[in-house]
């Protein structure tokens, strides 16, 4: 307690010098906060996603046609499904469309455009509010069209409530969406889509439910081997196992290299900071040799003196650490504007930062503090 | 209370600053040590004050020898039994009068905060510095600063005060006031005082004076002059 007041006093007395010393710690700790926040945010977003997907006991096989022409006609057949369900460890097999798109003509009032038509399912990339306006599991003949298509068919007029013709069927436009994708310009409810285009698009996904107690990986490999050997369209396309964490993994790779870089920055600045702290503590010790002598003469043990200077060094670093945490927090707010997920600062990362600050203070303060403790008393008292 | 037997001190393995010092100081005695500059006075009282344990010979304080003690017990004995007063006061310049006097209490376990306050106020009154508690040393005169130093030396109720030229930086009138204070402490609390001085008049306040010359101790001035 006494040490703390002495430390704060001494630090306050040399504010500018100490602030400069703290700069390294501030940068280092701010970097640590950012790394941890991005890492934690990423893990949180992944666990959330995985939780939603409930992919725990599912393995998905993909079929990729060799040419675009055969894409609509080839894929998994019911024969393939039966084949796959015989694979050891497979509970049941569901075939589905990954893309849920067909390529066809859309027209209205004499204007025409050939485009992909999409079905609104869970995986749709049209955002939620627009989706909800179009009842997903309805059989209705409602569609959403892209702004690009709207422009082409109706110019600057509003498209809402107007009709378009797809094949022989007429649909009511319920809204528009903007998209960066050039391919899919129309979305309709999945049931309607399936009803109209049944058979027109091949099933390019087979979802296997794995029996409990079986290894997903092993079952997947067995199924893949079997379908590669005897799939009906094995010559028209390729089969593969879908990896639900693939996208995450590639992002994680990027994240990891960024993390290593920032960790390097943090490490270097903490090292520099540590050396700075050591230097400033050496100065503090030699400036205060007289004070040390006085304290020693009036009963302070070498250990008292060492603890006093260690406290000073730790307090210096922790103040720097706290400033670093604040700046790290501001940086995380900034980073979040550019990240696809939300970086979060956890209590845990704040504790880590404070711990690191303490450690730097302890480590680099130790030698100067020890020097202060070991100095000969008579020499100290000769000091003016 | 203090017993010095054949104590010698060698600096840098060659310079003999003290040779075969024999000295007994009784409980409650007020002793002055005189001698020319460089004769070894500070060297001797550093040993007496347990600031230096690098010597040969024997030194007993309360029948205890501390030559080979560890730092912790030496420090505690210093804090408990000895109070130091220096020529140039040695106050902490950015600490108030009150805080300077508090320093020895920080390192002795017993007191609570309120105890501390009472004790400090008591010694401030004894040295006559009421009302200056919150002043910095730079705001006080030399004599007042030395009073702060004395208050700091006695705040722990030491058995011995060791003073190295306590009046050296003061004019003779202020010096005599400080000596009056020493004599008062010596008489009222029976505190043993060992004081180094150059000044014959200052030494006259003591009960007994010993003389050092070239590292040797003499009981009377005549023998010093004779050499
Ligand atoms: N740390 C040291 N290393 C080497 N020699 C020293 C050291 N300290 C003191 N001396 C020498 O020991 C001798 C005695 O020194 P000391 O300080 O005891 O003298 P003093 O009697 O107190 O003198 P003064 O009246 O000037 O204070 C001196 O010659 C001095 O040069
Ligand atoms: Mg001297």
Automatic annotation (TrEMBL), chain A:
Gene Ontology cellular component list: plasma membrane
UniProt KW keywords: Cell membrane, Membrane, Transmembrane, Transmembrane helix
Keyword NAD included in the entry's annotation: no
Domain ABC3 transporter permease C-terminal: 264-376
Topology of this chain in the membrane: Multi-pass membrane protein
MacB-like periplasmic core domain span: 19-222
Record GO terms (molecular function): transmembrane transporter activity
Residues that span the membrane, as ranges: 20-39, 258-285, 313-339, 345-367
InterPro entries: ABC3_permease_C (IPR003838), MacB_PCD (IPR025857), Macrolide_Exporter_MacB (IPR050250)
Name of the featured protein: ABC transporter permease
Lineage, top ranks: Bacteria, Bacillati, Bacillota, Bacilli, Lactobacillales
Automatic annotation (TrEMBL), chain B:
GO biological process: amino acid transport
Native organism taxonomy: Bacteria, Bacillati, Bacillota, Bacilli, Lactobacillales
Heme keyword on record: no
Alphabetical list of SMART domains matching this protein: AAA
ABC transporter domain segment(s): 2-227
An example molecular function term from Gene Ontology annotations: ATP hydrolysis activity
Organism of provenance: Companilactobacillus versmoldensis DSM 14857 = KCTC 3814
Keywords attached to this entry: Amino-acid transport, ATP-binding, Nucleotide-binding, Transport
A Pfam family the protein falls into: ABC_tran
GO cellular component: membrane protein complex; plasma membrane
SUPFAM superfamilies: P-loop containing nucleoside triphosphate hydrolases
Keyword Secreted: no
Protein name per Swiss-Prot or TrEMBL: ABC transporter ATP-binding protein
Gene3D superfamilies referenced in this protein's UniProt entry, alphabetically: P-loop containing nucleotide triphosphate hydrolases (3.40.50.300)
């Amino acid at each position: 307690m006494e040490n703390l007041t002495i430390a704060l006093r001494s630090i306050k007395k040399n504010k500018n010098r100490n602030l400069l010393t703290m700069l390294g710690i501030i940068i280092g700790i701010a970097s640590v906060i950012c790394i941890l926040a991005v890492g934690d945010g990423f893990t949180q977003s992944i666990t959330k996603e995985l939780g939603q997907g409930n992919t725990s006991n599912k393995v998905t096989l993909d079929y990729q046609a060799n040419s675009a022409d055969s894409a609509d006609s080839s894929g998994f057949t019911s024969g393939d499904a039966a084949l796959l369900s015989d694979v050891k460890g497979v509970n049941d097999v569901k075939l589905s469309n990954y893309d849920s798109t067909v390529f066809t003509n859309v027209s209205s009032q004499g204007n025409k455009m050939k485009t992909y038509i999409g079905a609104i399912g869970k995986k749709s990339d049209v955002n939620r509010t627009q989706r909800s306006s179009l009842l997903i599991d309805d059989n209705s003949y409602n569609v959403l069209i892209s702004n690009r298509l709207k422009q082409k068919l109706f110019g600057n007029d509003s498209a809402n409530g107007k009709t378009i013709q797809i094949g022989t069927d007429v649909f009511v436009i319920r809204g528009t969406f903007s998209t960066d994708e050039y391919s899919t310009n129309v979305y309709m409810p999945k049931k309607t889509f399936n009803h109209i285009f049944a058979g027109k698009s091949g099933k390019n996904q087979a979802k296997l439910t794995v029996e409990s107690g079986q290894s997903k990986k092993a079952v997947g490999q067995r199924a893949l081997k079997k379908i590669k050997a005897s799939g009906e369209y094995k010559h028209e396309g390729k089969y593969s196992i879908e990896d639900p964490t693939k996208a995450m993994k590639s992002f994680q790779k990027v994240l990891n290299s960024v993390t290593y870089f920032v960790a390097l920055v943090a490490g270097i600045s903490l090292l520099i900071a540590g050396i700075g702290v050591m230097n400033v503590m050496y100065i503090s010790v030699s400036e205060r040799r007289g004070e040390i002598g006085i304290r020693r003469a009036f009963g302070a043990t070498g250990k008292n003196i060492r603890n006093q200077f260690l406290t000073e060094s730790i307090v210096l670093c922790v103040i720097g650490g706290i400033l670093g945490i604040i700046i790290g927090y501001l940086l995380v707010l900034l980073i979040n504007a550019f990240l696809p997920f939300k970086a979060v600062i956890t209590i845990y990362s704040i504790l880590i930062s404070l711990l690191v600050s303490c450690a730097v203070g302890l480590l680099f303060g130790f030698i100067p503090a020890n020097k202060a403790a070991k100095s000969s008393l008579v020499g100290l008292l000769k000091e003016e | 209370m203090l017993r010095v037997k054949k104590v010698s001190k060698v600096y840098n393995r060659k310079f003999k600053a003290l040779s075969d010092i024999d000295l007994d100081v009784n409980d409650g005695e007020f002793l002055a040590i005189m001698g020319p500059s460089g004769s070894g006075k500070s060297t001797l009282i550093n040993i007496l004050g347990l600031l230096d344990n690098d010597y040969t010979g024997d030194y007993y304080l309360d029948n205890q020898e501390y030559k080979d003690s560890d730092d912790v017990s030496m420090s505690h004995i210093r804090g408990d039994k000895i109070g130091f007063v220096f020529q140039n006061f040695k106050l902490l310049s950015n600490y108030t009068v009150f805080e300077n006097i508090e320093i020895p209490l920080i390192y002795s376990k017993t007191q609570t905060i309120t105890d501390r306050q009472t004790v400090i106020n008591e010694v401030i009154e004894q040295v006559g510095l009421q009302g200056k508690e919150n002043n910095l040393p730079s705001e006080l005169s030399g004599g007042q600063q030395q009073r702060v130093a004395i208050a700091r030396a006695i705040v722990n109720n030491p058995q011995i005060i060791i003073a190295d030229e306590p009046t050296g930086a003061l004019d003779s009138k202020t010096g005599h006031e400080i000596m009056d204070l020493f004599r008062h402490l010596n008489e009222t609390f029976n505190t043993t005082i060992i004081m180094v001085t150059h000044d014959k008049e200052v030494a006259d306040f003591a009960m007994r004076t010993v003389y050092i010359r070239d590292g040797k101790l003499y009981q009377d001035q005549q023998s010093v002059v004779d050499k």
